[in-house]
Design goal:
Elements lengths: L10 H24 L15 H5 L43 H8 L26 H17 E4 L3 E7 L2 E6 L2 E4 L6 E7 L4 E5 L7 E3 L5 E12 L2 H6 L4 H17 L4 H5 L3 H19 L3 E12 L5 H48 L1 H17 L18 H7 L12
């Protein structure tokens, strides 16, 4: 009851009406059981009060034309303004009956000033008809146009499903299907190359090489969709499958090579091996995915041992430099020995043609080479002029004093 009269009547008025309603209901029940008239009537005994009439009680005789003011007044109703003893049937406020309550609950206007909330009414067209059919038609047209007409880009394809089951594949262009929820279309880009970077961000991905060393690998896998039907219905998570398969293939390939090959010239072979392994497994899964390539971006030692690893690399480079220097010196000696051997072979050929002449010429050339580097002293002999040791005298001669600058 408090919900019905909320915001419209004061608390005292609501309580008064509620008490009056219960009193009338009890009174009517007692009258029905005893067969007597209402004690709250107009006093003539032939009429009923307005409240009894509203509750549906039929009067035993037609009411009198003029109200009677000498009958008892309803003690539960306030007196009329200006008339303390006024009859409740002559203009006094009465409580709501059952019909008023249900009328207010349904939002009806009634005679009580339209109590309770009312439903908003849609605006009408100029001819007096409602806009509701037009709105329904517009919404239906939009629904049909968006669920039946599909525009597919040149790099895309679409898969049509009927109640969730595969129906057909749509190529690029304009396509028509049955409206949703009968048929639905899922569109995917099948031309663009997608890439998966492993690991994501700045994470560390350690793998064990064939010579029991750890290497930190960062690589990129490029792939795209080959068969859209297989891609959408064979694998639950195709992208995650590609990532996990790439990691498994990379670990298997790295385990077959040494650390130097993984960090050096063996990269290309590792990339090709990973690509072939991934494609074979994906084809066995019927995934509809083709691997375009695998690119190794970084091969570094683990972060915790990077300093020691750099020292080892530096020592290896120094050792390799010494080896290269020794090999170069050996090659020079070999070339010189080869040249001397060739010259000796030529001299030997000439010696075989004229041994005496060749022997004498070799003696003269040898003595000339030896004596040109030593001091020569000729001793006195009979009939020969004495040779003076000029080189020794020249070395013993004092050097001339330097001339002062500007002197004469």
């Amino acid at each position: 009851m408090d919900t019905v009269f909320r915001g419209q009547r004061s608390y005292n008025e609501c309580m008064t009406d509620l008490v009056g309603l219960f009193a009338r209901i009890g009174r009517q029940k007692g009258l029905f059981m005893t067969g007597k008239k209402s004690p709250w009537g107009s006093g003539g005994g032939d009429s009923v009060s307005p409240g009894d009439r509203e509750l549906g009680e039929a009067p035993d005789s037609p009411p009198s034309s003029t109200p009677s003011g000498d009958g008892p007044r309803n003690p539960w109703l306030p007196p009329q303004s200006g008339k303390p003893g006024g009859n409740p049937g002559s203009g006094q406020r009465r409580g709501p009956n059952i019909e008023d309550i249900f009328r207010n609950r349904k939002g009806g206007g009634g005679g009580g000033g339209g109590r309770g909330p009312t439903m908003p009414r849609l605006p009408q067209r100029p001819d007096g008809k409602s806009w509701l059919p037009v709105g329904i038609a517009v919404v239906t047209a939009l629904w049909l146009s968006t669920s039946m007409v599909h525009l597919i880009s040149p790099q895309e394809k679409g898969v049509v499903t009927t109640f969730g089951a595969y129906s057909r594949t749509l190529d690029s262009g304009t396509a028509f299907t049955l409206p949703w929820p009968i048929q639905s279309v899922a569109v995917e880009d099948v031309t663009s190359v997608r890439s998966e970077s492993i690991p994501e961000g700045d994470g560390e991905k350690l793998m064990l090489t064939g010579d029991q060393n750890l290497v930190d690998l960062t690589y990129l896998v490029r792939w795209n969709i080959k068969d859209l039907k297989q891609y959408m219905f064979q694998l639950a998570e195709p992208q995650q499958t590609v990532r996990e398969l790439a990691e498994a293939a990379m670990r298997q390939s790295i385990a077959e090579v040494s650390l130097n090959d993984a960090m050096g010239a063996g990269r290309q072979q590792i990339e090709q091996s990973v690509r072939d392994r991934m494609q074979n497994v994906l084809d066995a899964y019927r995934s509809g995915v083709v691997i375009q390539g695998v690119d190794i971006k970084k091969t570094d030692p683990p972060t915790k041992v990077v300093d020691a690893f750099k020292e080892v690399l530096a020592a290896q480079q120094d050792a390799q430099s010494e080896v290269n220097r020794a090999q170069a010196w050996a090659q020079q000696l070999t070339a010189r020995a080869g040249g001397e051997a060739t010259a000796f072979d030529k001299v030997y050929e000439q010696y075989k043609l004229s041994p005496e002449v060749t022997r004498r010429r070799m003696y003269y050339e040898t003595m000339e080479r030896v004596l040109s580097q030593t001091d020569k002293v000729v001793l006195e002999a009979p009939g020969v002029q004495t040779y003076l040791p000029l080189p020794g005298l020249k070395r013993a001669e004092p050097a001339p004093a330097p001339v002062a600058a500007g002197g004469q």
